[in-house]
What we know:
Low-confidence stretches: 217-225, 332-343
Largest sheet: 6 strands, mixed
Strand content: 5-15%
Strand order of the largest sheet: 2-1-5-6-10-9
Amino acid sequence: MESSPAREPEFRPHRVVVLAMDGALPFELGIPHRIFGRPRDAGGRHLYEVVTCSIRPPGPVRTDADFDIMVPNGPETLATADTVIVPASYEFGPVYDEGVLTPELAAALAHIRPGTRLASICTGVYVLAAAGALDGRPATTHWADAERLQRLFPQIKVDADVLYVDDGDVLTSAGVAAGVDLCLHMLRRDHGTAVANAVARRTVVPPHREGGQAQFIQRPVPEPQLATTTAARAWALDRLHEPIQLRDMAEQEAMSVRTFTRRFREEVGVSPGQWLTQQRVERARHLLESSDLSVDQVARDAGFGTAQSMRQHLQQALGVTPTSYRRTFRAGVDATGRTAARI
């Protein structure tokens, strides 16, 4: 008797539930919808389902702008989440002032199932902290709030100098645009660089900023008539497969190595060497996902020289080997080498 073919598991998009609370900042509140609301698989199915809920029954939620928003879902929606994201608010009350949950908020968070991925944007970290989700863990928030967060929650390892912190099932970010970086990072972690880069391009934002990049850059916008390191970065990106020395980059801007290094860190937030490594890791990820090149060839094309060197850098940056990374994300590439996910 012939056995019937095994059924494919029923497709279900990853459900992201965004918790809207009074005093919400509309920009931060909308980030998850913008980043997770677009990606689709090869069949046109949304990879994520993004819904917004309140800690009260459906109804209006105040924002810090001159308008309210109508939230159609109550706190029980949190029980359906695969990922819960808590954006910033200016009206957290006892959560922000004393580090304790209100009974209403505690009852809402109790709906979250064990194992659900948790994330916060900016001061949303206070909700996760007050709920005990960050005890003994590293976390970040807006640099202006970091000292207060550490004082209120001494059991948390607060890092004020990074854009976001990925601690596995709990992720936190700094303020405003760092929320975009965090959501793109989660998308990249779930579905690879090709999908995340496509969303970033549609959103017109940088495709990747390392979580360890500094929040506060002394000169984020170059002063008029002041030389920058833009040309050197463009020059290096065209030559990642070649050995690149610091003096080579400095020469592109007609600067001394010392001046170039200082200016580069002021503009980018990391050293030239760290930046080069980040770009090479991104190049390697892209090639592993989108090509059939051998690991040795990917290492050469990305500028690591040897497979061993690339393996060490990917292990340090991603926690996986090149082979494991390719095995995980090649499923999203079709036979022509194009990404199967659609944006």
